[in-house]
Design a protein that fits this description.
4-stranded antiparallel β-sheet; globular; 30% helix; 3 helices; 26% strand; Alpha-Beta Plaits; alpha+beta; single chain
Length: 93
């Protein structure tokens, strides 16, 4: 059995085409919760796959961050406003 846990993934990518491709990669694994922030249930292999696919998109000055949340931390997540993932119609660039 794999050890899946909630991960928060954020990115800051200057180039429009690379930013769009990064979003498409992350949508393969989880849900967009803000314009450049995703939440996903991942195991270690998923994280490695994301990093491998994303590596070519992150240029100098850009960033990709993946935060793993422990079970106790996941229970303490708090949010205000919109619940659930953003749809395409919610995103303004």
């Amino acid at each position: 059995m794999t050890d899946r846990r909630l991960h928060v993934i954020s990115y800051d990518i200057a180039k429009d085409s690379a930013r769009t491709r990064m979003a498409k990669i992350l949508l393969d694994y989880g849900d967009r919760v803000q314009c450049s922030v995703f939440e996903a249930q991942l195991d270690a292999r998923d994280v490695e796959r994301i990093l491998r696919r994303a590596r070519r998109l992150v240029a100098e000055g850009d960033s990709l961050r993946i935060y793993a949340l422990c079970a106790a931390c996941t229970e303490k997540v708090q949010a205000l406003g919109r619940e659930g993932p953003l749809g395409v119609e919610d995103i303004v660039v």
